[in-house]
Amino acid sequence: MTDAHTPSPSATDRAAVERELRAMIAEAARLDAAVVAGLPADTDLFGPEIGLTSLAGVTLLGAVDTRFGVDVAALDLSLDSLQSIATLADFVTTHRSAR
Where is the signal peptide (predicted)? Predict the structure, then answer.
C-alpha cells in the first residue's frame, strides 16, 4: 500500500522528465530557464510565451534524443507531442520507460 501523499514512481519520473525538458526548452528557445520553469504545463511550445521556432524545435528534438534516447520525430510522425510542455513530457516519459 502506498501513502496517498507520496507520488508513485511514474509520477516522480514524469516530474523529473518535465523539469529537465523545461530546461532544454529554455535553452533551445533562448529563454530564461526560470521563466520556462514557471509556465503552466499546458503552455504551447510554439505559442507566444515560448515561441519555439522550427530550428529551435529541431535542436530540442536532438537534445531529447541525446538525453532520453527518445527519437520523437521517428515515433510521432505528426509531432502532436510538441503541442505543449505537458504533451512532450508525457510522450518522453511513456517512450523512455518503454525502452
Answer: none
